[in-house]
């Protein structure tokens, strides 16, 4: 039973991520999401209290997807370079697999003066911020280790971290799947960006 | 007289860029912009036919600012590495100087399924796209030259171009001026990012 609920929950999240991506986080309605599922609004409201709660859940899920993929490949026995390269490859592959979620997050990267009206809105913003920071800290630790060991150039750590993560996230901006895409294209992009990211650190 | 009109035009554009940045491209109204100028809506409508025209003008101006700064520093007598590094430094400095415009552009990087209703909307989108591409082509040409000469790694040119430009634009995401910012911080960031961008190409 709980598995069924969980499946339904994730099915709704996936549909919501796609609708928010396509129509915009301001424009997509619960009606649009229900329509794309061929379902009723009631089914959605059974899982999520409001449109805002659903959007928050999509944004919270994005760093969770990448964290779950990247954390297990981290290995302190590897050099920071090798460690970073593995993490970067894994990160980019995870982003391609869950692209709509990351495109939705992108729509919140704009530094708007947010007016989080309710306490629960503010609590959700804090959870999203913590999840994002917690994930970024995985990369912060390996970049820091590389600077300490002298493998990576010593430069402002936060500037390095955020800039290199934006480089690894570049496909979120310009990539959309295309039917005529060469086979293995996303894997090739992942390798190229992991190489570029590592080169930018050294 | 035409200079006066032009000054007023640019003053309105600056105010609009700041309002769109702070309040969001969907939320900021002509009223908000007029209020921030201590002026009437009539003055704005004297220069711009609509809120949409004003937003389009802000987005069109962003690549114009960077193009005007970067084109003059390009020098075919320099090596592609030196040429790229100069262009990157100049680009980042121009972005810091006209940050609100670039933060507004960022809000349009999301790949929404746009519904450009009118012919003039579509014409404006085409002008913005052309301005952006025309500017990017400056970097495309120098990266291409570097790959041809063997100075830069040979890899997918479009992936390289768009990813390295996103790296150079990283401050648009995470930077906002702060009163307690160390002196020379933006210049230091520009050097670091130009170095990282060049390293990512080699």
Automatic annotation (TrEMBL), chains A, B:
Q: Does the keyword Transcription apply?
A: yes
A GO molecular function annotation here is: transcription cis-regulatory region binding
| UniProt cross-references to Gene3D superfamilies, sorted A to Z | Homeodomain-like, Tetracycline Repressor, domain 2
Q: Where is the HTH tetR-type domain positioned along the sequence? A: 6-66
PROSITE patterns this protein is in? Answer: HTH_TETR_2
DNA-binding region coordinates: 29-48
Coiled coil segments of this chain = none
Please give the superkingdom of this protein's source.
Bacteria
Q: Which UniProt keywords apply?
A: DNA-binding, Transcription, Transcription regulation
> Would the keyword Flavoprotein be found if you checked this record's keyword annotation?
no
Report the Pfam families cross-referenced here.
Answer: TetR_C_24 (PF17932), TetR_N (PF00440)
From the Swiss-Prot or TrEMBL record, give the protein name: TetR/AcrR family transcriptional regulator
Organism of provenance: Antarcticimicrobium sediminis
């Amino acid at each position: 039973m709980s598995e069924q609920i969980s499946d339904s929950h994730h099915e709704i999240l996936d549909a919501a991520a796609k609708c928010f991506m396509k129509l915009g986080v301001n424009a997509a309605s619960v009606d649009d999401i229900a329509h794309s599922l061929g379902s009723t609004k009631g089914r959605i409201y059974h899982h999520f209290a409001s449109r805002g709660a659903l959007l928050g859940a999509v944004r919270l899920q994005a760093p969770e997807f990448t964290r779950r993929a990247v954390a297990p490949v981290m290995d302190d026995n590897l050099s920071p370079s090798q460690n970073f390269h593995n993490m970067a490859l894994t990160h980019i592959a995870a982003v391609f697999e869950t692209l709509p979620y990351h495109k939705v997050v992108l729509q919140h990267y704009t530094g708007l003066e947010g007016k989080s009206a309710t306490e629960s809105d503010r609590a959700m913003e804090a959870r999203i911020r913590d999840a994002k920071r917690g994930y970024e800290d995985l990369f912060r630790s390996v970049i820091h280790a590389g600077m300490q060991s002298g493998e990576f150039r010593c430069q402002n750590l936060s500037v390095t971290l955020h800039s290199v993560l934006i480089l690894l996230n570049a496909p979120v901006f310009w990539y959309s799947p295309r039917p005529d895409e060469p086979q293995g294209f996303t894997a090739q992009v992942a390798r190229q960006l992991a190489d570029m990211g590592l080169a930018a650190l050294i």
